[in-house]
């Protein structure tokens, strides 16, 4: 009797184990079959690199596979994008990319070498960080109302810095000008550091910047924060109002980062990767790591992410064309 009961128990355990194995989806089996490469088309360091490494670590653990980060900078991110475009569409080569490469460059670059809708499959939005309008305290500008009043009283008296033509921060400035009906001269720099240096030195009075970059200067009093360009105040700096609160609607421009796969990647594989990314980014240790860089997870997956890309591309195309913005 005991032997019979033992055999029944063993049979039940084996059946349960078999069911567990069978429960693994075809997409999961495919993803567990080979190593992962996360392409980061910018140099090591910064949010793109951080997100790629977080995902690589998470995918390696989830699928018991090797996962590596390939930093492939150059040509404003196009070199890394081309690597992913040409990769086998099996979910094992993925692209971690900032918004501008997907939604701005297709309009801004006359010879943009990709068709975002055909060459890539949207997997998921990963994270975002708020942008903030800041000024040097020497300007005497203490609010957005002050800024608008000065710009209208003395046309062409103000300028704002950006890390480069066509950057998200440049376009945030142009959108603000349009919505606030003011004329402020744009001064393009080659990257954020020299723009911040001139802002701190008083050479240029205003700038739209990623909040994490300028938050230490805001706290020290070297810069004055006027407003964030997001839909809500940020927990990182809850005292800074949104532009919408201040009567300037439509300037909702956070910096965000997404995950893309090569065109032709099966929908079930992309959907599984989106679920994996969401689970990885929800881990407390990962959230803490992202918060250290001023990032917060932003979970928008597959079809909804695709819609977001299309909508934002159309939005920026209107701004680029209306403001006659061209690459230098």
TrEMBL record:
Show the Pfam families listed in the entry: TctC (PF03401)
Q: Which residues cross the membrane?
A: none
Q: Which residues form the signal peptide?
A: 1-23
Q: Which residues form a coiled coil?
A: none
User: Could you tell me the keywords of this UniProt record?
Assistant: Receptor, Signal
Question: InterPro entries attached here?
Answer: BUG, Bug_dom1
- Record SUPFAM superfamilies: Periplasmic binding protein-like II
Q: Does the keyword Cytoplasm apply?
A: no
Family under the similarity heading: Belongs to the UPF0065 (bug) family.
UniProt name for this protein = Tripartite-type tricarboxylate transporter receptor subunit TctC
């Amino acid at each position: 009797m005991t032997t019979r009961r033992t055999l029944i128990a063993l049979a039940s355990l084996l059946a349960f184990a078999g069911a567990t194995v069978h429960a693994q989806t075809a997409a999961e089996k495919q993803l567990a079959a080979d190593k992962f490469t996360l392409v980061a088309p910018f140099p090591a360091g910064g949010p793109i690199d951080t997100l790629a490494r977080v995902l690589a670590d998470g995918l390696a653990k989830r699928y018991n596979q090797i996962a590596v980060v390939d930093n492939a900078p150059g040509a404003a991110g196009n070199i890394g994008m081309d690597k992913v475009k040409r990769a086998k569409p099996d979910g094992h080569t993925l692209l971690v990319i900032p918004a501008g490469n997907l939604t701005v460059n297709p309009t801004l670059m006359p010879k943009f070498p990709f068709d975002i809708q055909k060459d890539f499959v949207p997997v998921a939005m990963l994270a975002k960080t708020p942008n903030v309008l800041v000024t040097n305290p020497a300007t005497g500008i203490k609010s957005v109302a002050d800024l608008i009043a000065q710009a209208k009283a003395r046309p062409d008296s103000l300028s704002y810095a950006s890390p480069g033509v066509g950057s998200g921060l440049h376009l945030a400035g142009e959108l603000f000008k349009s919505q606030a009906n003011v004329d402020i001269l744009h001064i393009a720099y080659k990257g954020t550091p020299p723009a911040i240096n001139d802002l701190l030195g008083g050479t240029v009075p205003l700038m739209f910047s990623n909040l994490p970059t300028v938050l230490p200067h805001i706290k020290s009093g070297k810069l004055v924060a006027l407003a964030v360009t997001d839909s809500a105040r940020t927990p990182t700096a809850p005292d800074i109002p949104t532009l919408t609160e201040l009567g300037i609607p439509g300037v909702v421009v956070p910096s965000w980062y997404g995950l893309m796969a090569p065109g032709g990647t099966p929908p079930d594989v992309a959907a599984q990767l989106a679920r994996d990314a969401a689970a990885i980014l929800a881990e407390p240790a990962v959230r803490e790591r992202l918060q250290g860089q001023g990032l917060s997870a932003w979970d928008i997956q597959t079809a909804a992410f695709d819609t977001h890309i299309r909508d934002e591309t159309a939005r920026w195309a209107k701004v680029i064309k209306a403001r006659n913005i061209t690459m230098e």
